[in-house]
Design brief:
By secondary structure, the chain is α/β, with parallel strands linked by helices. It comes from Enterococcus phoeniculicola ATCC BAA-412.
């Protein structure tokens, strides 16, 4: 039975999740589990293992999928706490670091402005685009990330070459830059040898042997295993050779390659023959019979290291470096007993396969289903092959796959020797020896029970300076009866001796090079700067890679990367394309945000809606509603209830039944408030004779309108339409509206709303759910004016009493203010700033500056929050109302931190949650509006300019404070809470924006 939990927007590094999966799989009640991010590639892995549940199929790449196969119903009661402990432990480790983590390239480059390298360990499907950004920011790239398409590798390496940068990788497992160990790497003494390697463990084997021989390495430049393929053409290898040729502290160059394409190999050799420095090279799979010109050609990795050390010490290169290994004092194995090689390093596996195949005249190396050698019962397996690491940690980190293979081969009666490597260093398992020894003991016991001998032969790749310590690792293996050799080549030699097979090496002389040489290209200043200083690295991905860099004197900035646009490939393509327009977009957006910040809203009048909205004066009966366009049939209960109430208020019908018949007949035209410079709360229904506030934005000369707040209880905006509701609407029309209008006439310019809002935000308002201070400040401004009017005293009292009792009265003024601000900002502007957010109970609609009056919509969400007694979330209507205009201009939930008194009412837990909310909203905005300063936010201004690019890129959608209406017409408000705008409308807006710029968005 599959049990699934999806943790939304909880991005974790894949290696950590692999280790976490192993922890959960160890539970006795778990048959199998997998914890992964919700990428398409990971879903394929789940599908292949029959773990893809319907819930997992819906996950996004930023969601963590927890899928457990168990027969126990309550298994997640144990699993989820264990996951929390594991992730909390990661957080605890992270929190101990003083280093500030970035969440974007901009932040990373601000933290480390002089960075010169980007180190990648992110999923390969996103790697190419991110590496291109690094290169375009003049950063050398070190890509531990693999599974990058060969076409992308070629493109990126050509770009790096053109820009004078090094593209190290993809699939570059190890490196040393200016003696700083990087990624999966050993601690090697500094020295005068420079290494260029299209092989990770090849570099590790050569450099650690150099260290143990007393030599040292200044640089080990990894290139990725495909660099010497015919398609890539050794772009990075050649650039690195030229760089080391020009690097004065490098006296000797060592080139290491997996089996290369012949023509590429010849080009590399031609370059090596053209430089001035001595060179040793090993092209795995070749068995050179002589050295050639100034290039010394090695057969094994150990020989390459030995030659490099002699050259570095100005000693004569020997004709033969082969050293016979003493045969272990045990009986020779029978001819039917075979060697099985289980390697965590692909190059070490290739070397072992090559040597065994040469000694036994087997079929040679293969690369199939993880096998490097698969001939006559002799197997050498690269456990780091994709077939073993898909969805699992690399075998250098996790011993599980190797333990399984040890158990499998121990059962095979023909297995006489199991040959394996232990790779030490940063990134590798803390104690691989300790992890493997129990399996080795168990395998020996199985063989002994079957009256067989089973030998284990090991090589340890490491130095005494590695965290696991080379000498200690060797001692423990030997004490356990493992035959440990000084190198991989000697380990293979030992294994063959146990079979009674001796190998040797021919002497090599130096033959003249008769080929052509080339003019050595010049080296870029950027590459020489990299090789001449300690690296300054932006670490994009696995945080543990910082450890070795910082330990040995490098600098890092941690970039906690997550997939752009939630992994949506189409949106990523658009965002990447828009990066080229950054200057234009920034200029356009600046115009919009300046207009928003510099707006001058004044409350000037209260008038019947029909007097300022011509559409309400036309012959056809017209009702304005909240949100983007909608029909009567599509409307949810509260909006339909509001329509019924408006029909009764306008006396178009005498009762509810007549009103419904009229609305269903098609005689009434429905129009969004936003189409006529108006806004309306909740249902938003506005009719001809309803009074509206008039707010003038004197910066642009535009006006905006909003009906007056009805107070609390049964009200039209929540869909109520009883006689009590109609009577109040009549009173607002006949008394409240005219009284305020008369009072405003006594002012010279109206009421300056910027001043009133700025004062009220310091008093604890956020202007959507909490308007107490603003309503009282409005009462303070309007009351003396009301008293001066010639209106009947009893009506004055009624109005002042109503204003004093209505804590939310200012909301409608704020809505008209927001509308005036954004309509001014929308005039003759372009860019990606959101200029409207609104909802009609069915769809959420946004507008942006670039696309003017066009709507970009997606289905609304239902608010979460607190419900009045007797009501639950089941009663709540989907999100509705134009009041999100407040969030559009940066107040409301965007300014939650300003109103700690309201946080729990809208579902937040308290001030810390409010602070977190506002901080999160700031991430999707272009800046802050200093006009409205918030004391509880270190006097930062409210959020300014929601940017659709940031929303789509981060997946953070605007949060909105809102009242909750009952889904049935006539019931009214049943609670209050918060709701998220749906991501889809911002994605649609981004696509429309891209099309306006001529960007193809297939």
């Amino acid at each position: 039975m599959l049990h699934t939990v999806i943790m939304k927007n909880n991005y974790q590094d894949s290696i950590n999740l692999m280790l976490l999966t192993n922890t959960i799989n160890a539970f006795s009640e778990v048959n199998m589990s997998q914890i992964m991010m919700g990428t398409d590639a990971n879903k394929d892995i789940l599908k292949n293992t029959n773990l893809l549940s319907p819930e997992a199929e819906t996950a996004s790449p930023n969601d963590m999928m927890i899928v457990v196969d168990s027969d126990e119903e309550e298994v997640m009661d144990r699993v989820l706490p264990a996951i929390d402990v594991f992730l909390d432990d990661l957080s605890a480790k992270d929190s101990g670091k003083e280093q500030q983590a970035a969440t974007s390239w901009k932040e990373a480059l601000e933290i480390l402005p002089d960075a010169n390298v980007a180190l990648f360990s992110i999923p390969g499907e996103y790697g190419a685009a991110e590496m291109e950004k690094a290169l375009k920011n003049d950063l050398h790239v070190f890509s531990f990330t693999d599974n990058v398409a060969i076409e992308d590798e070629i493109r990126l390496k050509k770009l790096a070459h053109e820009k004078g940068l090094l593209m190290m990788g993809p699939d570059c497992g190890t490196g040393i830059i200016s003696s700083i160990p990087i990624a999966f790497t050993n601690v090697v003494s500094p020295g005068n040898i420079g290494v260029v390697g299209a092989s990770g463990t090849g570099i590790q084997e050569v450099t650690t042997i150099i260290d143990r021989l007393g030599g040292g390495v200044v640089h080990a430049i990894g290139t990725g295993g495909r660099d010497l393929s015919d398609k890539v053409g050794a772009i990075t290898v050649k650039d690195a050779i030229v760089a080391l040729e020009n690097h004065e502290p490098t006296d000797v160059i060592c080139v290491i390659s997996k089996p290369p394409a012949k023509e590429v190999r010849d080009e590399v050799v031609q370059l090596l023959q053209s430089i001035t420095k001595p060179v040793v090279a090993i092209f795995l799979g070749e068995k050179p019979k002589a050295h050639e010109g100034k290039v010394y050609l090695a057969h094994t990795l150990e020989e390459a290291a030995q030659i490099a050390v002699d050259l570095a010490n100005d000693e004569t290169v020997k004709k033969n470096y082969f050293e016979a290994v003493e045969k272990p004092n045990v009986p020779t194995l029978a001819t039917d007993k075979v060697v099985k090689g289980l390697y965590s390093g692909g190059t070490l596996a290739a070397e072992a396969g090559m040597m065994i195949s040469e000694a036994l005249n087997l079929e040679g190396l293969v690369k199939k289903e993880g096998y490097i050698l698969h001939s006559n019962g002799y197997d050498v397996i690269d456990l780091g092959d994709d077939i073993y690491t898909q969805g699992k940690p690399h075998p250098m980190i996790d011993p599980e796959v190797r333990i399984q293979k040890i158990q499998e081969y121990a059962q095979d009666k023909n297995t006489g020797i199991i040959l394996f490597d232990v790779v030490l260093g940063y990134g590798a398992h803390d104690d691989m020896v300790g992890a493997l020894l129990p399996a080795i003991e168990e395998a020996r016991a199985i063989a002994k029970e079957d009256h067989r001998e089973l030998y284990f032969v090991s090589t340890v790749c490491g130095t005494t300076k590695d965290p696991q310590n080379y000498d200690e690792s060797v001692r423990r293996l030997k004490e356990a009866g493992v035959l440990v050799a000084e190198s991989n080549a000697k380990a293979v030699q030992t294994a063959l001796l146990l079979k009674g097979i001796e190998i040797s090496e021919n002497e090599k002389t130096v033959l003249p090079y008769n080929g052509k040489t080339v003019d050595v290209p010049s080296v870029s200043e950027k590459v020489m700067e990299l090789l001449s200083t300690k690296p300054r690295i932006i670490n994009v991905g696995l945080q543990s890679f910082n450890e070795s860099i910082l330990q040995y004197g490098g600098e890092t900035a941690q970039f906690n990367w997550r997939p752009r646009a939630g992994g949506n490939k189409k949106m990523i393509k658009i965002l990447d394309a828009l990066d080229a327009y950054e200057e234009k977009i920034s200029k356009d957006n600046q115009v919009v945000t300046d207009k928003m910040k510099n707006a001058q809203p004044f409350l000037t009048d209260v008038v019947p809606a029909k007097s300022v909205i011509p559409e309400l004066n036309e012959a056809q009966k017209t009702l304005l509603h909240a949100g983007p366009p909608i029909t009567w049939k599509e409307m949810t209960g509260p909006m339909q209830g509001s329509c019924i109430g408006a029909v009764l208020f306008e006396r178009w019908a005498n009762n509810e039944q007549e009103a419904i018949r009229l609305l269903e007949s098609g005689e009434v035209r429905f129009m969004p408030c936003h189409h006529v410079q108006a806004v309306g709360p909740m249902g938003g229904i506005t009719s001809a004779n309803m009074p509206v506030f008039v707010v003038e934005n004197r910066l642009d000369g535009n006006q905006a309108y909003c009906i007056l707040n009805e107070g609390i209880g049964k009200v039209l905006r929540f869909g109520a339409y009883s006689q009590e509701v109609i009577d109040r609407l009549d009173w607002i029309k006949d008394v409240l509206g005219p009284t305020i209008a008369e009072a405003l006439k006594l002012t010279e310019e109206g009421i300056n709303l910027n001043v009133l809002i700025a004062r009220s935000i310091t008093m604890g308002d956020e202007f959507h759910q909490r308007n107490i201070a603003a309503s009282l400040n409005f009462l303070k401004e309007i009351s003396p004016l009301i008293i001066q009017t010639k209106i009947d005293e009893s009506k004055k009292y009624e109005v002042i009493k109503f204003l004093a009792d209505t804590d939310q009265f200012f909301l409608n003024i704020m809505m008209a203010t927001g509308k005036a601000i954004v309509d001014g900002a929308r005039k003759e502007t372009n860019g990606t700033v959101v200029t409207t957010m609104t909802r009609n109970g069915v769809n959420f609609g946004v507008r942006i500056a670039e696309t003017g009056d066009d709507w970009h919509t997606a289905p609304v969400n239902t608010p979460k929050g607190l419900y009045f007694t007797g009501f639950t979330e089941e009663d709540g209507n989907p999100d509705i109302g134009d009041s999100a205009i407040t969030e559009t201009v940066g107040v409301g939930a965007m300014a939650m931190v300003a109103a700690p008194g309201v946080t729990r009412f809208v579902g937040a837990g308290g001030f810390e949650d409010a602070l977190e909310t506002s901080n999160e909203m700031a991430k999707i905005c272009l800046g802050h509006n200093s006009t409205f300063s918030i004391p509880t936010w270190d006097f930062q201004g409210t959020c300014l300019g929601i940017d659709i690019r940031k929303v789509v890129e981060t997946g953070i959608t605007p949060i909105i404070n809102t009242g909750i209406a009952h889904k049935q017409a006539g019931v009214g408000q049943v609670g209050a809470g918060t709701v998220r705008a749906p991501l889809g409308c911002f994605e649609n807006a981004l696509e429309a924006y891209a099309k306006k710029l001529g960007i193809q968005v297939d």
